User: Fold these one by one.
Assistant:
Number 1:
Amino acid sequence: MGANVQKNKIDVKKIDRIIKGYDKSEESLLAILQDFQRAFQYVPEEGMKRLSRAMGVPESKIYAMGTFYKALSLKPRGKHTCKVCMGTACHLKGAGQILETIERELKVKRNSTTEDGLFTVESVNCVGACAMAPVVVVDESYAGHVRQSKVMDILDKYK
Ligand code: FES
């Protein structure tokens, strides 16, 4: 259901409805981009185009905002984010193999999103839980001492 959302075409009416809800002023830009992010789980190109036209602001400026703010993503993201810590402590405890297992099982490359839109898989630097190394973080939930053979059990709970 939700997992297939990003495979569908972007709902242009939804984009326009969001834009219409705000004043035509530059101060509204960020709030509108945040609403796009919430509605589509990323900021679609079509959204930036329509916003540019509606507000009379160059697309390049909107694009720059989209790349500047970390909470905004210009690429479709998965319903869940799976971060594999590749910091030193985790690396020494086999994080590389864990990441490879996830890539193989989900048929996805690191720092991209699965075909079904369920997971965005990222390799990240130390997430501050070295005592629990190796660590995998799914959305806000930390899993520590993750074993390569068990990592898919963790992700299966989100399917
Ligand atoms: S290196 Fe992974 S939590 Fe610190």
Number 2:
Amino acid sequence: MALRVGVVGCRGIGTTHATAHKNDKLAELVAVCDLVKSRADELAAKFQVKAYYSLGDMLANEDLDIVDVCTGGPENGGWHGEPTFQALEAGKHVLCEKPISNDVEEAREMVKLAAKKDLYLGVNLNHYFTQPADEAMQLIKDGKIGEIIYCHLRTGFPGSEWAYARTGGPNMEGYPYFHVKAFLAHPFSIMRYFCGNVCQLQSFFSKPSYRIATADPMVSVNSIHMKFENGAVGYMFSSRGDTTNYYGGWWSVEVGGTKGTFAIENCVEKLIYQPAQGNPDVVSPVGLGLAPEPVITDYGVKDFGSTFPRRIHCFLEDVTNNVPKHKLRASGRDALATLEYTFAAIQSYENGGIMVRPQPLPFIKPDPNNLTLPKAPAAPAANQPSTDVSVK
Ligand SMILES: NC(=O)c1ccc[n+]([C@@H]2O[C@H](COP(=O)([O-])OP(=O)(O)OC[C@H]3O[C@@H](n4cnc5c(N)ncnc54)[C@H](O)[C@@H]3O)[C@@H](O)[C@H]2O)c1
């Protein structure tokens, strides 16, 4: 049976989510809600569903399975917490837009409440819900990358000193960390998806002179160096409209290992697999600087918008299949990880680039109903010497 969904927040992203639910067989869009009446009415009319002007009313009047939180707020995450707490308290699963919050303590509470209520809390970390990312992960699983050595991610809203315009809006204006908090959830989530948890991190932030001249507070250039728990090292460069990337389109990531390397170019567009020198399955040219031929797959897609229905479908699929809560793809805990890294990066920047260890994530409790107890060792036969040195 389709999951009954109510969307909260009816502007650009709420409309994108509502459209994805409407077109997905696993969902039934039943209502939308916005504090601004005209926005709720317009979206409700578009999809012939009921409009509400408060989440409380929507929860009281509709039998929902999922509340999809598409509000924004300060730093694009300040208004995620309140509707998420409200929906979880009402016993509803939640899909929330990124960043999970603009406040790391609030985000920890959101994850804690979902665990306490035993409900799904997913976050729209949509950038790795793509065909190139799926196939890149398959390369890792197939052993074609080997032990991961490095991960480089470069992302930037294209821009320049000519194109710069002081952007305002209540969510952004006056917040030095708007870009860091609103956006780095994506690049951190991609790096963590491929390389695991970050255990150490160091950052340098800056902004170009034209932002300084207009007293624009935003630290729009972010350079972050990190180490992963698995021993790999990583580097992220992010800029909000101060320069224009040449390589890799809007964002690109490269992950190099002891057996091969892959790169994703332009988020959804291309996957490049570079077998390592000496790989016995391919021809390795002999000579300094020469490497085997790369395998380049061009998916013919450039529209990053295609990530939304794909990610939303995965959330609907996980809830439909009742997967164990810790197996939920792009969970609240995963999003909390990205916010812990974001806050660690801010701490590093504010302290002159010191190394910071991000706060560890909450422990995943095993389900006591599904524990497989280890088999007790067979008792040694009478008069036989035990082979267990500890009992000698
Ligand atoms: N995943 C992505 O790729 C991606 C891309 C862009 C934006 N986003 C995120 O999507 C979110 C929404 O973006 P947007 O541009 O549509 O935001 P927006 O600020 O333009 O619209 C949010 C809407 O939510 C409504 N709202 C706020 N609090 C409410 C509440 N408690 N109850 C009901 N309605 C409420 C507001 O009235 C507004 O109409 C942001 O958090 C942003 O970070 C994600």
